[in-house]
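Our working data are protein records whose layout never changes between entries. Instead of coordinates, the fold is spelled out as a row of discrete tokens. Here is such a record, shown just as it appears in the course material:
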Amino acid sequence: MRKRIWVCFVILCLLSLFSSGCSYTKAKSEMSKATQMLSELKAAGGLQKVPYEYCSAEKFLEIADKEFRRSDYGRAEKFAIRSQAAAQTGLSKAK
């Protein structure tokens, strides 16, 4: 009986490690996309043409970075996606 409990515990620990690795990767990927889109918006003159969207995208990315450094990868991913949305809106308005 104890062996079965121990095996279940080890399996749960391994599953939690694998799932946290996936969150890390997704958050890092979304943050990279957000950084790239923010750079595109900056190159398109976003700070002068659409300052609200530019500042929103920049601040959401900063928050995503803070959450990422705190190891809260789920929140980091959500803020990175919001940054992408703000940058995309700014790009469409700037062109």
